[in-house]
Structure formats: structure tokens, C-alpha cells
Amino acid sequence: MRPGHGGFITVKNTLLHCYCVCGKIEDAHHLFDEFPQRNDLISWNTLMGDYLHVSQPRVIVDLFKEMCIGGFEASVTTVLYLLSAIGELGSYLGGESVHGYCIKMGFSYNLHVVTALIYVYAKNGEIDLARWIFDGVAVKDVVLWNCLVGKYAKCGMVEEAVALLLGGGLVGELSPGEGESDVVVDPATSSLNLNKSAEESTPPKLSQP
User: Fold this and answer.
1) Alpha-carbon distance 9 to 7, whole Å?
2) How far apart are CA 178 and CA 114, in angstroms?
3) What is the rounded distance in angstroms from the CA atom of residue 138 to the CA atom of residue 102?
4) pLDDT tens digits for 141-154?
């Protein structure tokens, strides 16, 4: 593949994803490194998503650091992949750092990012922080409710889970076990769809403190 060809980056990004689908993540990374000056944000996101698919969260965190050093600004898709990795690694401090980054970049108003943050905090035992973020969102969807209700249940906080259900008037609307699902671990199935649904989502309205 010659870098002078038109549409080089598009072809490269397609090949990156194809390599991963075929289980050739090392080949994908080699292609990524072969022409570093030809990588764009989609290239970074594609490789991160591929590593998430093969459950290598540490590599995703390292890629994010490299991306920032390279002068790229993350997108919502990037942050969701990063939070997925941090959730798998069980890093509370990592989640807190990304939370600050999301506020700085204006991503903390995105409903998918909010749900991901709640997931990471709750999974790392910071259920009060997760609830604080949840309470700050004025307009919530069922996925967000499922996430916190499921984490309450998983922590053995049954009374809090029931109170949250009753308080939201969502009894009968939440799918059994859906709150237990890892809504961030597989962002492609939750709302990501690579720079489409997560990037184009309508930001939720936050209540004033």
C-alpha cells in the first residue's frame, strides 16, 4: 500500500478494522505504526476499539496517552473506549482523571459518557459518586437508570435499588438483569457505532446545583 494513493487514510482505517475482525490485532497495530503521520482520530479510535474487542484494556490506556502526546483531542467515542478500559482495569483514579478530562472537553453533558462514568465509579466501589452524577442529570434514559439500579443490586443495596425504581416510576420498564449488564464494556452495542450514535447524541439537560 503506497501512502501517495488517494483515500489512503480511509483504506488504512478499513484495513485496521478488518485485521481485528480476523483476529490479527498485532498486524493491525503494525499497520498503524507503519505510517504514524497518516493516522487520524478515526485511526486511533479504530485501534482502541479493536483492543477493547480482544480485552486488552491496558493497551487502550497507553494508546490514549500516546494520542494526547501526538496532539490529538479525544472524541466522545475515544472517551467511551477509555472508560471501558478503565472499568475493566478497576482503576478508580483513572476514572476520576477521565471525568475531569470530560468536564474540560465538554463531554460531561453527553448521556452516554455520563452512563459510562456512573458505571466506572460504581464498579470501583464509589457508589455515592455514581449517585451524585446520576442525580445531576435532569433528563435520564432507561439505560442510565438500569446502570445505577443494577450496581446498587450488585453491591447488595437492595433498598436503594428499590427506592430508585419507585422514585423514577420505571417499574415494569426496566428489563430484568439489564441493569447488571456492562453497558460500557462493549460500547459498540450500547451506543457507540464508531463516531455515529455517540457523537451525534443529544446532550442531556443537567439540573442546576
Assistant:
1) 6
2) 17
3) 18
4) 888 888 898 888 88
> How far is 143 from 178, CA to CA, in rounded Å?
8
| DSSP code for 183 | T
Choose among 29, 30, 36, 49: nearest CA to 9: 36
Residue 83 has what pLDDT? 93
- Do 60 and 87 touch, CB atoms closer than 8 A? no
Cα 19 to the center of its chain, rounded Å: 22
pLDDT tens-place string over residues 34-80: 887 778 999 999 999 989 988 999 999 999 999 999 999 999 999 99
Give me 43's grid cell. Answer: 485511526
CA-closest candidate to residue 45, choices 89, 25, 75 = 75
**Locus of grid cell 476520576:** 96
Closest listed residue to residue 57, CA positions, set 106, 7, 95: 95
Residues 6 or more apart in contact with residue 178 via CB below 8 angstroms: 146, 150
Tell me if residue 125 falls in helix, strand or coil: coil
